[in-house]
Design goal:
9 strands; alpha+beta
Length: about 160
């Protein structure tokens, strides 16, 4: 799971303006570093915190029914949608023969798939023609030499 989520029961009399730092310290002691408090529900007496990977981590993609080899990338905290081109270039340089096929910075993940240079070039050409990012275009080669495309939802 790219983002860890926890719920913490607040002590009676909790005041976020005075006790927020001590709550963050308590979370770090109990669950480890890197959690950020996202919200507090004073009526329920609960705080919610999340932690995203501090560095990019790579693993095998689970649940893929594709014929291609795929890798799931846990993105570093703070990765923004505008970082997509930079992340795609960096990952394809680090993993030759793979291309980013899914980029979900708010979920903290990206998916890489094995892709030959001709398929990658065709996908890039379609993306330029449509004015979208390459990872928004799904592509697979066909036995007859052509390609099957999956266009972005906006089409």
């Amino acid at each position: 799971m790219p983002i860890e989520k926890i719920a913490i029961k607040l002590p009676p009399g909790f005041d976020s303006s005075r006790h927020l730092k001590s709550l963050a310290k308590r979370i770090a002691e109990k669950y480890g570093d890197g959690f950020e408090i996202d919200s507090i529900d004073p009526e329920a007496g609960t705080a919610f915190a999340t932690r995203q990977a501090a560095v990019t981590e790579i693993g095998e993609a689970k649940g893929s029914n594709s014929r291609r080899s795929m890798k799931e990338v846990r993105l570093a905290r703070g990765t923004k949608p505008s970082d997509g081109d930079k992340v795609a270039a960096k990952l394809s340089d680090q993993h030759p023969g793979y291309a980013m096929v899914k980029f979900e910075p708010f979920l903290g993940r990206a998916i890489l798939a094995e892709m030959d240079s001709q398929t990658s070039r065709a996908r890039d050409a379609v993306a330029v023609a449509l004015g979208v990012k390459p990872w928004d275009v799904g592509i697979s080669s066909r036995p007859d030499g052509g390609y099957d495309l999956e266009l972005p939802r906006s089409y």
